[in-house]
Structure formats: structure tokens, C-alpha cells
Specification:
The complex is a heterodimer of chains A (204) and B (104).
Chain A: H1 22-32, H2 36-54, H3 61-78, H4 88-113, H5 135-148, H6 153-164, H7 169-176, H8 180-200
Chain B: H1 5-19, H2 29-42, H3 50-57, H4 63-84, H5 86-103
Classes of the chains: A mainly alpha (204), B mainly alpha (104).
Chain lengths: 204, 104
């Protein structure tokens, strides 16, 4: 059995915002002190990045909206625990990735307990393609997300971030709080599960 | 008939590469702002006490410096206390010393 490509063919997507923006630290400090305007500025500044990341997990606009709001609610609740020693964007990504993993868990539970529909179970109506969006990319993303949705939640999170976001396994493991060996083992198992899944799916 | 693993892997790699180019549908930031404001209103602003500052001293990057400072302060206080109360401690020290000599 040939292994799946370990690293995505293209390098990891560069972060659109700097990881250690000094303005972020000032804004977070103000937001921690109760400054609502600073909190608004933080949300506005990182809304795009969070939306982009959460879209890797969601397949419908409604799910995406819920996920993005969930991330910012978690952000507000966890804000007191943020320390200036860690880059804010890195910390925010950790919050977002955990929200994405919880979304995968909820979907796994839902699919387990929901009555099996007669049609294809992993086929929500595809999101309307906005002008300017590459239709082929949208269809490919939908197909890939549908396939990954068959995996256990942790595997789905790991492979979603690796293949769709382009992150290294080590980086994902660090964000999810896994040790290096545990991440390698999970990645090996997840890729093996994906491989057996691919055998039973006829990809276009 | 199942496709061969090689072709499946190649197809998956191509699919993932294409999927990475997908961009999310545009979202209005106002919903996220509303969610954040509501959560902030429900969360009381934290009160930072000296205990938080003390705990921050031992955060990862400052752990060594914090431990060193704490040990130095503790040593200075111990030496100062011992020096200050030496007149009361001296007879006890003599007693312990002579007891040790006798036992040896």
C-alpha cells in the first residue's frame, strides 16, 4: 500500500497577519481590562483569518457562521488567561482549532444518532458559489470535506488541517496539545484510515 | 471495481490541492461582533491580584529567573533573621553542639 503524501504539495499557507503584532498585545491588554472598543477591534482584525480557517471544517454557510461566532465567544471567555508571552494569533488559532475539533465531534455524534436519510448522508446542499470564487475549488473542497467527514473527529481535524490548510502534523499536534510521538501515531493511523476510505470511494 | 491505491492517492492529492484554493463565502462581521459583545457582557472583567502577578513570575520564560529571585530573597531573609536572633539562638546552638560531641 503506497503511503499518502506526507506533506501537501504546496507549502503551508502563509499567515495573513503577523504572528507577533505588537498592536495585538496592546488591544488584548485593553480588552482584558474591559475595553469594549479594543475587543471590537480584535474581532474585526481577525475575523477574516478565523472565517478562512473555520471554512475548512464547515460545508455550509450557516455552519460557518456558527463556528466563527463560537470562536469569538471562546476568545472572550479565554481572554483573561492570555499572557503577553505568547503571540496572540497563535493563541487564537489554538482556540479556533479546538472549536473546529468540537464541531467535528458534534457532527460525528449527530451522524451516529440521526436517522439515516435515504439520500447520500454526506451531501448537504452545496453552498452557493459567490462571484469571484473558483467553482472547481469549491467543488473539490466540498468533495474532500465530505470524504473526511467519514473519519473519527480527531482524525478528521488532523487531516483537514494538514491537507486543506497545509499545516505540518507537528504544528497541528502542538495546537491540539498532543505530544510529538502521539501526533505521529495519530497521523499514521489517520492517513491509513483515509487510505482505506479512498479505496471505497471513486474520486473524480 | 475498486480503483488502485496509487490512483486513489494521486486523485486525493489533486483534490486536496484544488480544495486548498477554495475561499469561504463572505460573512458579515456584525454577527461575530454581536456574539463577542454578548459574551463580554456576560463575563465580568477579571480582577488581577498580587497572586496573579506572583504566578506570572513562574510562567515558562521567567521560570528560572523567578525561582532564582525567590531563593535569593528567602536566603537573605533567613540570614537576617538568624543574625537578628543570634543572642537567643546561641545557647541552643551550644547545647546541640555539645550533645553532638558527647554522642560522638
Amino acid at each position: 500500500m503506497n503511503p499518502l503524501p506526507v506533506a501537501p504539495p504546496t507549502p503551508p499557507a502563509a499567515a495573513p497577519g503577523p504572528d507577533s503584532d505588537p498592536d495585538d498585545a496592546a488591544l488584548v491588554a485593553a480588552a482584558q481590562a474591559g475595553d469594549r472598543a479594543a475587543l471590537d477591534a480584535l474581532v474585526r482584525r481577525h475575523h477574516g483569518e478565523v472565517t478562512r480557517l473555520m471554512w475548512r471544517f464547515a460545508r455550509r454557510r450557516a455552519d460557518l457562521e456558527d463556528l466563527v461566532q463560537d470562536v469569538f465567544v471562546r476568545l472572550v471567555r479565554a481572554l483573561p488567561s492570555w499572557r503577553a508571552e505568547q503571540p496572540f494569533l497563535h493563541w487564537l488559532r489554538r482556540v479556533a482549532v479546538n472549536a473546529g475539533r468540537d464541531h467535528c465531534r458534534r457532527e460525528a455524534v449527530r451522524s451516529r444518532w440521526a436517522a439515516a436519510p435515504s439520500a447520500d448522508p454526506d451531501a448537504p446542499p452545496p453552498e452557493a458559489i459567490a462571484p469571484g470564487t473558483d467553482p472547481a475549488a469549491r467543488l473539490a473542497a466540498d468533495e474532500a470535506k465530505a470524504l473526511l467527514a467519514h473519519l473519527p473527529p480527531d482524525d478528521r481535524t488532523l487531516l483537514t488541517l494538514h491537507y486543506l490548510e497545509g499545516w505540518e502534523f507537528a504544528r497541528i499536534g502542538e495546537l491540539l496539545g498532543w505530544s510529538g510521538p502521539a501526533t505521529k501515531l495519530r497521523a499514521f493511523r489517520a492517513r491509513r484510515r483515509l487510505q482505506s476510505l479512498l479505496k471505497n470511494h471513486d474520486l473524480p | 471495481m475498486n480503483p488502485s491505491p496509487e490512483s486513489s492517492d494521486a486523485k486525493w492529492a489533486r483534490l486536496a490541492a484544488s480544495a486548498r484554493a477554495d475561499v469561504p463565502p463572505p460573512l458579515d462581521v456584525s454577527a461575530a461582533l454581536h456574539a463577542a459583545r454578548t459574551a463580554a457582557a456576560a463575563t465580568p472583567p477579571p480582577v488581577r491580584t498580587w497572586l496573579d502577578d506572583f504566578a506570572a513570575l513562574f510562567a515558562t520564560p521567567r521560570r528560572l529567573a523567578g525561582c532564582g529571585s525567590f531563593a535569593a530573597v528567602a536566603l537573605i531573609v533567613a540570614v537576617w533573621l538568624a543574625n537578628d536572633t543570634w543572642t537567643q539562638l546561641e545557647p541552643w546552638a551550644d547545647l546541640v553542639g555539645s550533645a553532638l560531641e558527647d554522642s560522638l
